[in-house]
């Protein structure tokens, strides 16, 4: 029969998912119905088609193939599998075709499960879930959310914290498409909170829950903002700078002491984790408090010495033979080569403008605006001058250490 030849050809091309694609399309609405013989032939061919796809996937972990190529193959296969599983969702087929559709669905489930497993080995995201699994996942998560709503209504839990946790789950339930990693994380999060709540009997329940969320790497923007506001509120209650710094060091010690659980990667897999995000918050607070303290000391010094602020600033500026443009380009080189973080560029330019004095400024302060403009627009002359200075420094280094 013609169909047997077609099936045989599809088996030989299984690496491109051709056979499974063709069967799914034939089962779709508007297509010519399969005959009884064709149904029997497809049922006989499906195990072989599926086996070849599974074997091809397993081969990705064997041999010396480049990891990036293997990841691309796995990603393509996963997307094709999800597309076919979605195509079968909601098929209204004749009763005689139902066993074939169920068999094809089972084959695709097996392929998808292997894709998920291999994604873990290659440490890559699975991506968008099939609609059927998403529906089942939402039903399971909804049951967790119902239990969680009651648990988080217990005395001692901040209403804002409760709402931001439930909102994260609700956003998943309302989404049309979602990734597998987000579902796995939210299931782990909700189950862990439910289990953790049964162990809390004394002390500050809200603080213990916050620490637990941090331990679970809950890096949702709403939670990080909430945590930051709590720290800021505590700092505002302290008058002495020493007490504020001591509180920040206490938080830093606390963040470093709590290990993050590897079983729960992160709420946002494409953003910094809770540990990095909160430590960045602490760094900003440290910087803000120290700068404010320096300003207060400077103001106190000025009031006692009777000198103007301009005289005070000028007295502490350092003279340099470098031009404003050269200084700006040196800062840019430090940023572009990763010697300093790009986020500190503005801070570094402000520091240079306030701390150095060039021949061209005639004793006046360097304009931050001028420094920023020259940072963006580097001339050939400036690059040549800086290159000569760097070569001079390199020769000095070679001389100092006999390189």
Strand content: under 5%
In total, the number of domains comes to: 3
Structure classification: mainly alpha
Percent helix, as a range, is: over 70%
- The average pLDDT is 81
Q: Biggest sheet, open or closed, and with what strands and sense?
A: 2 strands, parallel
Spatial strand order of the main sheet: 1-2
State the end-to-end distance.
Answer: 80 Å
* Run of helices and strands: HHHHHHHHHHHHHEHHEHH
User: How many E-type strands?
Assistant: 2
Assembly annotation: single chain
Rounded to an integer, what's the Rg over CA atoms? 32 Å
Secondary structure tally, helices: 17
Main traits of this protein?
disordered N terminus; 70% helix; 403 residues; two-stranded parallel ribbon; 17 helices; 3 domains; mainly alpha
Question: Would you write up a description of this structure?
Answer:
The chain is mainly α. It folds into three domains: 2-124, no CATH class; 132-290, no CATH class; 317-401, no CATH class. The protein contains 17 helices and two strands. The chain has helices at 2-12, 18-27, 36-58, 67-88, 98-121, 131-151, 159-174, 180-197, 205-215, 221-236, 241-257, 274-305, 309-315, 324-336, 345-355, 368-376, 380-401, and strands at residues 318-319, 356-357. It has a two-stranded parallel ribbon. α1 packs across α2, α11 (241-257) packs antiparallel against α12 and α14 (324-336) crosses α16 (368-376).
Layout of helices and strands:
Blueprint (H helix, E strand, L loop, with lengths): L1 H11 L5 H10 L8 H23 L8 H22 L9 H24 L9 H21 L7 H16 L5 H18 L7 H11 L5 H16 L4 H17 L16 H32 L3 H7 L2 E2 L4 H13 L8 H11 E2 L10 H9 L3 H22 L2
